[in-house]
Amino acid sequence: MGKKPLNISGVLPRLAMSAELGPPRSECGVGALMVWAGKLWAITYVSHKANSGVGTGLYVIDEDLTMTRHPASQVGTYTNRFVHWETNRMIIGPHIVDAHGDVRTIESLLDVRLCGTMQHLTDPANKVYMLGMEGEFFELDVNTLEATFLFDLVAELGVPSHEYAHFKAGYTNYGRVVVANNSYDERDFSGVENAGRLAEWDGKTWTILERAPFVEVTGRGTFSGTIFATGWDKASAILMVYTDQDKRWRKYRLPKASHTFDHMWQTEWPRIREVEHERFLMDCHGMFYELSPWAYDNHVWGIRPISTHLWVMSDFCSYRGLLVLGSDNASAHHGANHLAGEPQSGLWLGKTDDLWQFGKPSGWGGPWWEAQVEPDVPSDPYLMTGFDKKVLHLTHAADETVRFRVEVDFLGNGSWRTYGHFDVPAGGYEHHEFLNGYSAHWLRVTANRRCVATAYLTYT
Predict the structure, then answer these.
(1) Order of strands across the sheet that contains 176-181
(2) Cβ neighbours for 319, distance < 8 A, ≥ 6 positions apart
(3) Under a CB-based contact definition with an 8 Å cutoff, are residues 136 and 129 in contact?
(4) pTM of the model
(5) Using one digit for the tens of pLDDT, what is the confidence trace for 340-370?
(6) Domain boundaries, the chain
(7) How does pLDDT run across 202-221, given as a tens digit for each residue?
(8) Which residues make Cβ contacts (< 8 Å) with residue 81, sequence separation at least 6?
(9) 13-357 classified as CATH 2.130.10.10
(10) Dmax (CA) of the chain
(11) Is the CATH number of domain 363-459 1.10.287?
């Protein structure tokens, strides 16, 4: 009987992935986790191009939790993972793995910082789309491994040329390819520009859905009639939901568990994943949520916060009954971090129910942050359920009293009911403390006159 691996609160030190000392000295994040051909596969990402780093790459972990670096391993920034069921192959990074675990490498894409692989719109049996972080959009033949460049999405979607493009994810369903770019820094926070994008392509035309940073887009095929995308802006975290029944996107707002995620580099691939059968686990802006793939009556309502965390959580999945979380723990940041000697990251293994032992759900955000609002036009719905103590803050810049109407949707199906009215004088401020235990699924706010207004909630 072999010696049991050291396990400290779900972390097995022997499963850590580390880069050599370089140069270059950047990071070693766990970019993607996939279970395939009887093994757990992991691929790492660095913050520089391929073939210019040392260590890291493609790893294979067996059921005894023994990890080996695969001989086909390549150094690069890779976070894409996808199963091409038509040929029974897994795509992870620049590699294609068959059902026997044999690996082929897409040589022409080694230097692309691959962040997404998506189903093809017209030839799904033979091709997929590949998305690069800098907005490169390719068509790949999964048999010949020939990649054809289709779009520069920085130019196609009007991402400011001086901005650092940071595409994060892509997904295909219902005749559309949806991509997410999370460019965001001081210029976006101050309102000088909006470089983030959520956009879709129908095979002919690209359409920008949101000019805000987005990090994830996914769904469960045609199983439930939905597509989900997560992002944020200055006011709050954002959940966009497409429902195929009415061919429409809806915007919902969620609290931010922490402002430490308010930069494109600090939101490294938060995912939505199915880790329990036919259920989603959503990691969004430092908080885990339960998320149903279904949207009854074209509305989502069963979103419940689980816990908060500070991890850069690049991917997670189920393996042999375990929940596996992949992280990005320590980066030398090309020498800028003098207190991190070796880039390295580990895996956490446990049960899904263990997540309830993490930080208790709390956060802040709101539907409006110094927003231009029109009279009697309600705000986006803002999540209210699953938090303990709740305070609403109201202020505005009008030169006369503004009456705010607060409505709640306790059924979650868009049936709004008035909770109360709050009069805020010119230049004034009011707050409202909800009773302990009071909750509804969603809250929204309306003003009775045109003004610049703030409606912000703190959950503790």
Answers:
(1) 167-173, 176-181, 197-201, 206-210
(2) 33, 35, 40, 61, 349
(3) no
(4) 0.96
(5) 778 889 999 999 999 999 999 999 999 999 9
(6) 13-357, 363-459
(7) 999 999 999 999 999 999 99
(8) 32, 33, 34, 43, 90, 91, 92, 117, 315
(9) yes
(10) 78
(11) no
